[in-house]
Amino acid sequence: MTAAQAGDQELFAALFDRHRRELLVHCYRMLGSFHEAEDLLQETFEKAWRGADRVDTSSSPRAWLYRIATNACLDALRRRGRRRVLPFDIMDPVHPEGPMPAAADELWLEPFPDRLLSDVDPGETVVQRETIELAFLAALQHLPPRQRAAFIARDVLGWSARATATLLGTSEVSVKSALQRARAIMKERLPQRRDDWGAAAGLGDREREVLRRYIDAHQHDDVEALAEALADDVRVAYPQIPLWSDSRDAFIEATREHAPPGDHRFVATGANRQPAVAIYHRAPGEPVFRLVALEVLRIEGGRVTEIVDFDVPQPYAAFGLAPTLG
Prior knowledge:
The chain has helices at residues 2-5, 9-17, 20-31, 34-51, 61-80, 87-90, 134-140, 145-156, 161-168, 172-189, 205-219, 223-229, 248-258; strands at residues 84-85, 107-108, 230-238, 243-245, 263-271, 274-282, 289-300, 303-311, 324-325. By secondary structure, it is an alpha+beta fold. The chain folds into two domains: 2-189, no CATH class; 205-325, Nuclear Transport Factor 2, Chain: A. The strands form two sheets. Strands 3, 4, 5, 6, 7, 8 and 9 form a seven-stranded mixed sheet that branches. A two-stranded parallel sheet has the order 1-2. The protein starts with a helix and ends with a strand.
């Protein structure tokens, strides 16, 4: 830090890079958006560089960077004025015989590429699977911004009440009050069937096998095999439409009736430490398959219980996905 304060930007960049990945995850949790988190990370670097000469060298550089990032996120959330959601949060499920929902002017939660977590110890609190899964992120977005920051610092990062108060520029009493309210909301919003948020950090063999069966069933247009891979009450959301359904039959019917003509390829990948599938489509007469969607899956009890079907993620390169396949 002392060298950075002397004006050595290269040394300062090295200090910042030591915490870059966890700061990106922190901004993502606060904002619910990967591309916004990347922008805020760059803003954090620039603000930190400009203010490096005013930092007490005895203080923790990590805590100082988190405070800058958190304040930048709080400012961004104030400007935005809306939270990011999934269709589950704002509308009733659609059934095959029912009407289509009206268009919704919403900001949608975005997925986070697993490959950016590959060089981080999965046991670290900043990237534990249960605190970056979509269900957890969606629940977080229901917290007011400062409650969200307090909850992340205390219950995700494991910071003390004093450190959290310093982070937010408030008192320990205020932190404890905000945390109590935040915990109540999170308990209400987290899936009922998932009481234990201390699950394994990586995908297990059973999940990989279900993912393989799910992909094979799609590739071979095997409706029976697809039905076997899905839970009866599988929830499937399409933010880009937007709508969601709450049954295996509704998903299979939609897949058969509304899939565009042509061929599809499904490529296994990962997002939010969950199994995911990149979907490529080749229209009739076209020479290549083009990336059209990213499905993020939840697998429990040997079946797919939830699917969120995202449009092509803006930063598809960050997911290691090619825009086309031959």
